[in-house]
Amino acid sequence: xxxxxxxxxxxxxxxxxxxxxxxxxxxxxxxxxxxxxxxxxxxxxxxxxxxxxxxxxxxxxxxxxxxxxxxxxxxxxxxxxxxxxxxxxxxxxxxxxxxxxxxxxxxxxxxxxxxxxxxxxxxxxxxxxxxxxxxxxxxxxxxxxxxxxxxxxxxxxxxxxxxxxxxxxxxxxxxxxxxxxxxxxxxxxxxxxxxxxxxxxxxxxxxxxxxxxxxxxxxxxxxxxxxxxxxxxxxxxxxxxxxxxxxxxxxxxxxxxxxxxxxxxxxxxxxxxxxxxxxxxxxxxxxxxxxxxxxxxxxxxxxxxxxxxxxxxxxxxxxx
Length: 320
Known about the structure:
Elements: E1 4-7, E2 10-13, E3 16-17, H1 19-25, H2 29-65, H3 78-95, H4 100-128, H5 135-140, H6 153-166, H7 173-176, H8 184-211, H9 217-221, H10 231-244, H11 248-281, H12 288-291, H13 301-319
Antiparallel strand pairs: 1-2, 2-3
């Protein structure tokens, strides 16, 4: 990946024409910097969001496993949560320091885990729940009576789209990994399109299945419930507790989601590091020579650890 060729005055690497290098050659450095700001900073923020969400999920799993809010369970402080976040990022950085064959294996495992796990949960949770919402409630009800001051139904609908939009996040990972993909001209676009299609179908099914188990919205959002206001955790926990007398099954289901989020964060760090490498290779980042170096396995180690470090620092603003 460090080998350079020169064809018609345009920088090439591994025989692959770098679009950013071409723009840089033509004098579009300002445009490159804008691209850097909007893309790579956003990518780092995505990793922060995913791994911090996992840290919060682990905190809720610990809380419910020790009795929940009502049972005097352990409530981790914000410092413990940020510590969990840092630990998760550390593991992700270590995994992404492995050769690409290892990352490919974990990626395949992640895809299987996500699809299988989602199908199990979208069927299991509404089946276990003693009470289920009606189709009319799911497709026509707006939670306009809330304590956050948002009562406009059109605005609530737009906010609701964010949940659906989040299921599509990550499809661009195929583009970031094309330089390490066999038959990238076909498999790259195929990966993007298939990720979007699968996310739409599976994501919609998951959200729909979970929503059938929602019957009391205010209670789910209350900070005094067993999950401390963590709605999804409360749905899972109460579904099993109301059916079987304890919420152990719900905690296990949360574990399934936690593993899925872990894989998501791992892939996000992979995308971050490859984007960092691409920008630094084309001289669009400070200290580019350092960030675009690769090891003997052609892994951009410096970019991997930079991405993990910045993602940790971004979370500090949430914890203060």
